[in-house]
Specification:
- With about 400 residues, this protein is mainly α.
- Helix content is about 65%, strand content about 0%.
- The longest helix has about 50 residues.
- It is extended, with a radius of gyration of 28 Å.
- The C terminus is likely disordered.
């Protein structure tokens, strides 16, 4: 029987494949008719051109292929600025290290391609590390602000004294130290922040680049999410009004947008993980309901899974204490502060090698309560930051 982590992995893989199949069907139904119409118009123009100038179709197609090769090298019909001057090269390396990769500028020489492999290897790794650290600090600031607002609400209700001291041992005050913001509130805040940045950036791109406002929003999502199709690319004209100011604003908007969308994607991944856990829990309850009833009838003074935490809101904190392997693990995501992040990652290479060796040799691995995680265990990067635990952001800090 597959363990819980493998079941989650397989379910996520199946859902992603189904999601891709549905997306392919929708895009094919929307875009294919337009593509066919454009191809018919092009064939008609090509036929009229060859007939008017008495050219063979083969020669004309050969000429068009040569133009396509020149276009890849950066040659255009209109006289535009060189793509590989210093400013153009700096814009190119920005798209490389941020993994956007618009594709409008690519190295054509063997030396440039070889250098890009090593340059991108280090640059992308460093940028991802920067995004992870940015995400950790952003979540810590959001948690601190939300906790301060929560404390103000308690003071207005009279539950928490205005001097900050604990009252007569009420449950509200006792639970304040362990209070964590809901992952859904964090996701809402990041959504609003990303939307505000995209709207402000679109207001700048629309008059300067000559795009429609909708095309500007489309470009913002494609660029900020590092998809980078390359059909719309900013800062490519030969001249702009206030060119230096525009390039600086373009850089700032792309940097802020990528950071916010990257953080939003990681928070959404927590919600997806919670949904997968919920689906697996429902499937497990339906398939093994009778077996579980027999098992719990044979045990006395046992708390049924889900009864203890059924009234708790889903937050970004998962308490590993008092969790058992039978309760399916708590459905929540987790985030961490810099202090707890450094403390939780003080694992030496020898311990990691020992765990890998024991796993490979089939030895039983002892799992402590602190090592049990909800969803996909372990992990590196931003998802691991949120999957360990969110720091307690107290007012005393």
């Amino acid at each position: 029987r597959l363990n819980a982590d493998n079941a989650r992995f397989l379910l996520l893989a199946v859902l992603i494949v189904l999601y891709m199949l549905c997306g392919a069907a929708v895009f094919s139904a929307i875009e294919l008719p337009t593509e066919r119409q454009a191809k018919e118009r092009w064939e008609e123009r090509l036929e009229n051109f060859t007939r008017r100038h008495n050219l063979s179709r083969t020669e004309l197609r050969r000429f068009l292929r040569e133009y396509e090769e020149a276009s890849v090298a950066g040659i255009r019909v209109d006289d535009i600025r060189p793509r590989w001057d210093f400013t153009g090269a700096f814009y190119f390396v920005g798209t490389v290290v941020s993994t956007i990769g618009f594709g409008m500028t690519t190295p054509a020489t063997v030396g440039g391609k070889i250098f890009l492999i090593f340059y991108g290897l280090i640059g992308c790794a460093g940028t991802i590390l920067f995004f992870n650290l940015f995400l950790e600090r952003l979540i810590t600031v959001i948690a601190y602000i939300m906790k301060s607002c929560h404390e103000r609400q308690l003071r207005r209700k009279g539950v928490l004294p205005h001097n900050g001291r604990r009252g007569s041992g009420t449950s509200e005050v006792d639970s304040l130290a362990g209070w964590k913001p809901s992952v859904y509130y964090v996701m809402l805040i990041l959504c609003v922040a990303s939307l505000i940045i995209s709207c402000c950036a679109s207001a700048m791109y629309t008059p300067i680049e000559g795009w429609s406002y909708f095309d500007s929003l489309y470009f913002c999502f494609v660029a900020f999410s590092t998809i980078g199709f390359g059909d719309l690319v900013s800062s490519q004209n030969i001249r702009y009004e206030s060119q230096g100011l525009y390039r600086f604003g373009n850089f700032v908007f792309i940097l802020m947008g990528v950071c916010c969308i990257y953080s939003l994607f990681n928070v959404i991944s927590i919600v997806i993980k919670q949904s997968i856990n919920w689906i697996l829990k429902k499937l497990d309850c339906r398939c093994c309901h009778r077996c579980q009833r027999k098992l719990f009838r044979s045990r006395r003074n046992v708390v049924m899974p889900g009864n203890v935490r059924s009234r708790r809101n889903v937050s970004i904190e998962t308490d590993a204490v008092n969790e058992s392997d039978t309760d399916g693990r708590r459905l929540s995501g987790e985030m961490i502060s810099m202090k707890d992040f450094l403390a939780s990652n003080k694992v030496s290479l020898a311990i990691m090698q020992k765990q890998l060796s024991e796993t490979a040799n089939g030895y039983p691995r002892q799992m402590s309560s602190n090592s049990k995680q909800n969803g996909f265990s372990g992990g590196v990067g931003a998802l691991a930051i949120m999957n360990n635990r969110l720091a307690e952001t107290s007012v005393d800090r």
